[in-house]
Amino acid sequence: MSFDRSLKIAPSILSADFANFGQEIQAVEAQGADWIHVDVMDGHFVPNITFGPDTCKAIRPHIKTVMDVHLMIAPADPYIEAFAASGADYITVHVEAGAHTHRTLQAIRGAGAKAGIALNPGTPASAVASLLDMVDLICVMTVNPGFGGQKFIHSCVEKVAELRSMIGDRPIHIEIDGGVTPETAPLVRAAGADVLVAGSAVFKGGSVADPAPYGENIRAIKAACKE
Ligand code: DX5
Ligand code: ZN
């Protein structure tokens, strides 16, 4: 079977109700989410703090699709085992987060998870050129990481196209994270992305009590990409 490059929407629970992750995940999956994106922040690599591996473990049983853990932490190495043990399907680390990314990616795969590498908006595509055989996913940040609801940085779109051609036939997903909306999604989809993370654009207007807007928002992003 060929590699799945179909469009996938990965709602970020950074925009969900933090007091109610389990029900939020169930609601957004019932409304059509393809993956669940989990943003881990340390207050050091990024200027915000969210949660750690224990929270990931607690929410894991609520996720039926794919648990996509985005580590915005430095160092990452001491915590890889714990995040893998929490049940993450994908663990993504930042190429800017340490001097030994190659070793970190080996550790992720060694722990039984799929390995992702993320690039900040200021980091060129060439930073991951030597890592292509080590990764299952490349995450292109289209905002500076740390907060939801920021404005999409248009100059990152060219980098997506560059990475898509670098990847060739390799089985690597291209994920976009930050400022994805029905307006910006078609740009990155056309450039070669297949996983679109969306926080505020998916969770806006809805709630666990009234989840229909989650589905409308997901469908609006897909429709804008004509999918
Ligand atoms: C940003 C996070 C994103 C964030 C996206 O640091 O990595 O996953 O939740 O949020 P939106 O879609 O609102 O830009
Ligand atoms: Zn993220």
From TrEMBL:
The keyword Manganese applies. Binds 1 divalent metal cation per subunit. Belongs to the ribulose-phosphate 3-epimerase family. It comes from Halocynthiibacter styelae. A divalent metal cation binds at residues 37, 39, 70, 177. Keywords: Carbohydrate metabolism, Cobalt, Isomerase, Manganese, Metal-binding, Zinc. Pathway: Carbohydrate degradation. This is Ribulose-phosphate 3-epimerase. One of its GO terms (biological process) is pentose-phosphate shunt. The active site is at residues 39, 177. Gene3D superfamilies: Aldolase class I. The keyword Nucleus does not apply. Catalyzes the reversible epimerization of D-ribulose 5-phosphate to D-xylulose 5-phosphate. GO terms for molecular function: D-ribulose-phosphate 3-epimerase activity; metal ion binding. CDD domains: RPE. It is an enzyme of class 5 (isomerase).
